[in-house]
UniProtKB/TrEMBL annotation:
Gene3D superfamilies: DsbB-like. It comes from Thermus brockianus. The keyword Repeat does not apply. InterPro entries: DiS_bond_form_DsbB/BdbC, Disulphide_bond_form_BdbC, DsbB-like_sf. This is 2-oxoglutarate dehydrogenase. It is a multi-pass membrane protein. It is found in: Membrane. Keywords: Chaperone, Disulfide bond, Electron transport, Membrane, Oxidoreductase, Redox-active center, Transmembrane, Transmembrane helix, Transport. Belongs to the DsbB family. BdbC subfamily.
Length: 134
């Protein structure tokens, strides 16, 4: 059984939910995104389109592009989490009006949500790459 389309579909759903979730936080809940939030969005939003088109076309060769976006976005999410946990260590990362140390949801921080999404997509693309090499 070929898992490629299933992995691609899963990654697309993750990217779509992450994209819609971030829009919900900013447009409905009115959470102002900080600078690092914008950078994370830059690496997540295109994936909803990229992976959706790849799924529609059954293009399993999309994995290197999505993997690159996810690795960079996940790195930014990690930096953002560190900024929130240890704001005294990061003086240049973010500036007003919304400092990156602001936690809108302390129980489940938004950068952690983004990191989980990036990791799920990274894992899916890694499996897709392995399947493509067979």
């Amino acid at each position: 059984m070929q898992r490629g389309p299933l992995l691609l579909g899963f990654a697309w759903v993750v990217a779509l939910v992450a994209t819609l979730g971030s829009l919900y936080y900013s447009e409905v809940r009115l959470f102002l995104p900080c600078e690092l939030c914008w950078y994370q969005r830059i690496f997540m939003y295109p994936q909803a389109v990229l992976l959706g088109l790849a799924l529609w076309r059954q293009d399993l060769g999309v994995w290197p592009y999505s993997l690159a976006l996810s690795l960079i976005g996940g790195s930014i999410s990690t930096l953002h989490l560190l900024e929130q946990r240890f704001p005294e260590l990061f003086t240049l990362a973010c500036k007003p009006p919304v400092p990156c140390s602001v936690e809108y949801i302390p129980q489940f921080p938004i950068p952690l949500q983004a990191l989980i999404a990036f990791l799920l997509i990274t894992f899916s693309m890694g499996l897709l790459a392995r399947e493509a090499r067979r």
